[in-house]
Amino acid sequence: MWRRDARAHCQYCYLAGSLSGPPITRVFANIDDVLSGIGTHAGRGTITSGTEERGHEGTTFELSCYTDPLGIERVTGSLAEAVRRVGAGDYGDDVSLRFTTKFDDVTELVTLDHRRRTRVRLSVNADDIAHRFEGGTARMPARIEALRQLALAGYRVGLTIAPIMPIPGWQEQYGRLLSNVAEALSDVPDLDLTAEIITHRFTPSSKDVLLSWYPGTKLEMDESARTAKRNKFGGVKYVYPKDTMSEMRTWFVEELESVLPEAQLLYWT
Q1: What are phi and psi of 246, to 5 degrees?
Q2: Could you say which of 51, 112, 207, 240 has the lowest number of CB atoms within 10 Å?
Q3: Taking 70 as the threshold, does the pLDDT of residue 235 lie above it?
Q4: Which of 125, 151, 154 is nearest to 138 (CA)?
Q5: Cα torsion through 52, 54, 57, 58, rounded to 10
Q6: How is 99-124 classified by DSSP, letter by letter?
């Protein structure tokens, strides 16, 4: 169906360390086989399906774990087909889809009978970060306009604000971003909006890979300026120091509540 899209050149890609080689575009044509797995796994999840407070949400399938499916949709048509089939209830009424994108060509998506069973999240960031580190992607005004068009077409939508970086003037830049989104969605009826906020982090392996891909990058990846966090398997990732994380989290939570009170904050990390 789809794999990783090599069109975008995001110099901070956290998944870089998990790739076995350079990013490539690989397309799988067996969409029937891929989507048939929905029936096998629906209702067996542990995050929502098995919980009393969220069981009513059914089972959501993520389409963008390692890829941006909208980036190659003109070639594959797989994304529209998946949205169409799930919208029609081919795999049951309790199944939904979601994906994140940095692209803006939603011309076909807004024509589909999706039945609000797909949530489209636009990956957004401060202008300076997007301009410097997100090569080959749609510019921020175009992404926000795509978000508006999808919301007007009845889709459940979301913001993936990532990766947040405490660049000079970050409050002003992210404040402007949220204000632009609020203006774009101000007249959308029955708006269903979520927000996911992710701070920048890197691992030793992702740093090595990214520096090999982008040797001239200006991306800050200084271990001495970060806090090391280890998982139960011994792996390490470098995040911002506690004080910086606390300052950013407080600001974003308050700003989101003030500027976009309709947004449901799913998580901060």
Answers
A1: -65, -40
A2: 51
A3: yes
A4: 125
A5: -50
A6: EEES----TTGGGS--TT-EEEEEEE
d(CA 239, CA 242): 9
Q: Yes or no: say if 175 and 140 are a contact pair by the CB < 8 Å rule.
A: no
- Give CA–CA dist 61/269, Å, rounded: 21
pTM of the model: 0.91
Distance CA 19, CA 4 (A): 10
194: three-class secondary structure by DSSP: strand
| 244 contacts 220 by C-beta, under 8 angstroms | no
List pLDDT tens digits, range 101-157. 999 999 999 999 999 999 999 999 999 999 999 999 999 999 999 999 999 999 999
How would you classify the pairing of strands 118-124 and 95-101? parallel
**Three-state secondary structure string covering 200-225:** CCECHHHHHHHHHHCCCCCCCCCHHH
